Amino acid sequence: MVVRTRTADVAEQAAIALALLDDGRTTIYSDSRSAVRAFAKGTVSESALRIVRDKEVKQHTIVWFPAHMGQIEGAPSNLNESAHRAARGFVDRVAIERSGDEVLDNKDPPTTYNELAKNFCLRRQKYPPPHSKLNRPQALTLRLLQVGAYPSPALLHKIYPEIQTSDTCVLCSDFASLEHMLWRCPALRVHEDVTSSRWDAALRSPDLKNQLWAVQRAHDVAERQGLSVPTWERPATC
């Protein structure tokens, strides 16, 4: 039997449906959570339904198990891996024959609330989370830098004009925005090679060294402006 589909989920459901016709096996294993859930909720695809429609299907147990765990040393051959390699061979061959068409999606689509929420969150994520080796204050500093809320003379003057009486840079007397304080100030460029692209790359990097560099630099330039900033960013070491 051939099931033509552009989604792996429908193919997985069809495979389970075919297995349901085998009376010699009462337990069916699948590595597709979405396919197992579809059978559990009775929301299978039309392709899977056609296979079992008007057929006598005895009671079976459908069990999900983690996919692609590799070959375990000393254990029997992992048939799931063998099937996956064979299936990928067909998919790759079909993808070539399609000459540029969309390749078959072999990922389980999100179905539960938590999976959908996490999927939307990751798709909208612009910056990586703080590295696990950053302490909490360092992680907070990085997040403030990523959203542009780290203290600067201009920001503090707008919020607390009676405390921060000036919004100008102490080094060049220009308007001291966060960008100016971090890398735009001409006085900084004389001694340091920091550009907007380098700064943006550091904020977008998941690497510990780059994140520590950004946190430490923010602390140093804030001190030069005479801002009251905590000292927990230093020493910044990997």
From TrEMBL:
Protein name: Protein containing RNase H domain
MF (Gene Ontology): nucleic acid binding
Top-level taxon in the UniProt lineage: Eukaryota
InterPro entries, sorted: RNaseH-like_sf, RNaseH_sf
